[in-house]
Amino acid sequence: MNGAHDPRAAADAPLLPALAPETMLFEDAGVAVTPGCFLAEVERIAVALPEARYVVNLCADRYRYAISLFAALWRGQVTLLPMNPLPESLAALARQYPELSVVADEPLPHSPLPVWHYPPAPAPVIPVRGLAPAIPRDRQAVVLFTSGSTGEPVAQSRTWGALVASVEAAARVLDLDTLSGAALLGTVPHQHSYGLESVTLLALRRGLRCERTRPLLPADIAARLAALPAPRILVTTPVHLRALLDDGGPWPAVARIVCATALLAPELARRAEACFAAPLYEIYGCTEVGQIAVRRTVATEEWQCLDGIGLSEQAGEVWAEGPAAARRAALNDVLELRGGDRFILRGRKSDVVNVAGKRSSLAYLNHQLNAVPGVRDGVFGSATGDGEMARLTAYAVAPGLTAEQVLAALRRVLDPAFLPRPLHLVDELPRNALGKLPQRALDALGESACAWTSVEFSIAHDHPALPGHFPERPIVPGALLVDRALRAIATTAGTAYPGELRHVKFLHPVLPGATIELRWKSGKDDEIEFELRLAAHDDPAVTGAVKAARG
Amino acid sequence: MTAEEEALARLIVETLNLDFDATSADGTTALYKEGFGLDSIDILEVALAVSQRYGVKLRSDDENNTEIFRSLGTLTAYIEHHRAQ
Predict the structure, then answer these.
(1) Taking a C-beta distance cutoff of 8 angstroms, is the pair A339, A310 a contact?
(2) Considering only CA atoms, which of A197, A174, A246, A240 is closest in space to residue A66?
């Protein structure tokens, strides 16, 4: 950005724009939070925030989040918005940013860092009169994060000026000036780029009433919307929108729907517009750049760039830049440009995965899988399932571990959306001579016989048992063991009970109270091979094969 | 595990295609994290499946869904309570 010649970059931008003094920004204890009250609370928190260069804002309530964000901005502290509040993510932040404090409005029992709790407000608030404080546009306001390939998150910085320019440009395209005094409800977290820009900042820059909670269940979203006065704006994602529509209503009247984080199927957009009788606008963006373009999905597949965003092609990549961009960056998607400000989205680059609107890279996910103690080799594969609910699969070579143990380790470091479903334990990965894993070989692995599914179950201590050959060593009858295994196979495979046993061998006795690992895989001729393993033996206690059941 | 809990466990495993033995669950099995390992996207699918199977629309009024989604038992109790009404 050429700051010296760009008047927008040179000037300040006020914390709040000029709004009517009675504008309701939030509701607090039954009372309207007007711009004057909002600024008074910002001042109170700005004075109270701990001394630190960076503030990790984990507030769940949108009002307290916005106040903490603006208080830090006013004071010149940079707000960090981690991808998730997992203890490992916070510890990683502390390594990158030694001078930080954590602000939260709910208990964080597992936080590895000390937490400053948002203090209750004294009553009554005396509104600030006059203009909102001016903030230099080049001040660093927030740092968002994307997942890097090495396991450390990659910082994506935003200046106050870029945020304001981007949010103002989006508000114009969404035609929000015709909806003065509207209420806005968002289903997305504000620790992410989309929630920061399209919920919190959009509401504050346009003087909209922002719903403080983030309802998830369709019935909760509908009830919260209905409790807000019309006109209403719904800011959501394809996943939430599909759930809301599938739930069957009734839906309160909505004047505008905004959707982002993943491409919306045109059919879903048509259903949403019909059910809510409202125009739906889709926003395209990424954490590196911020909001890039908007389209009315039912009307066109062509995206229109926001004011202040320009696109150009260079060395086979499309770059975004401009005063409304956080920075100049190459995009992770394949775009077909139609001039400098319009394009068709053709798909994602192969390393980028998007699960339920959350983006990560396969390099990052593979790094985390291979960092699990006991995993010798592992790789994430393509998505299973379809549409908004598609999930990732993964393959791991992890002798001595169960799939559940590997998943438990991944759960500590990965956002739940990226946990593989299923995780296949395999004897080895089909790497070629160069050590690479061709996608074809991976696909074949998914279908082939060497992909074992593993589940664990326990036999009750008081399970019916036979006396056995030795005193005090009762054994669990083999027929009951096999029955238990076949029921578990039916459950995990989602099929009927596979009743036709082809063969079975009992190699070790199984005693009541034992914990058993069941491994099974599809073999030739509609056969399912299975084995039951006990921790005490290297070889299986029971092996067998059964005819696969249909559906 | 009660018959109602077992039926709900099977519904969850079938709906989400989980690598989880529904028969190993009981009323205290957690739905999030260890246990069924559900996340917020799964909760949306479960809510839809419950609505179709039982005619009960799940309401939490709590974005973390901590109470009704705490365990298989709490979700079963919620469904049974609202079915009866």
Answers:
(1) no
(2) A197
Torsions phi, psi for A440 (to 5 deg): -60, -40
Q: Which residue from A333, A392, A329, A398 is spatially nearest to A362, judged by alpha carbons?
A: A392
Instruction: Burial-class residue A202 by CB neighbours within 10 Å (0-12, 13-18, 19+).
Output: buried
Tell me where in chain A the CATH 3.30.300.30 domain(s) lie.
356-449
CATH number (domain holding residue B71): 1.10.1200.10
Q: Which of A217, A247, A417 is opposite residue B39, by nearest beta carbon?
A: A417
Q: Which of B16, B44, B56 is the best residue to mutate to test the A interface, defined by the most A CB atoms within 10 Å of its own CB? A: B44
Helix H or strand E encompassing A456:
strand A453-458
| CA A174 from centre of chain | 24
Instruction: Answer whether CATH 3.30.300.30 is correct for domain A356-449.
Output: yes
Its CATH class, for the domain covering A453-549, is alpha beta
Q: Are A390 and A384 spatial neighbours (Cβ–Cβ below 8 Å)? A: yes
Nearest to A220 among B23, B51, B60 (CB): B60
- In chain A, what is the greatest distance between 2 CA atoms, to the nearest angstrom? 92
Contact (CB<8Å) B22/A491 = yes
CA distance A285 to A434: 36
Supply A510's token pair: 């199984």
Instruction: Give me the number of domains chain B comprises.
Output: 1
Please tell me the distance from the alpha carbon of residue A5 to that of residue A28, in angstroms, as a whole number. 43
Render pLDDT for A24-60 as a digit per residue (tens, 0 to 9).
999 998 999 999 999 999 999 999 999 999 999 999 9
CATH 3.10.129.10 placement within chain A: 453-549
Residue showing tokens 């995009």: A331
pLDDT digits (tens, 9 = 90+) for A198-234: 999 999 999 999 999 999 899 999 999 999 999 999 9
Taking the Cβ of residue A296 and every Cβ of chain B, the question of whether any pair is shorter than 8 Å is answered with: no
User: Under a CB-based contact definition with an 8 Å cutoff, are residues B32 and B71 in contact?
Assistant: no
Tokens of A121: 């407000």
Helix (H, G, I), strand (E, B) or coil at A183: strand
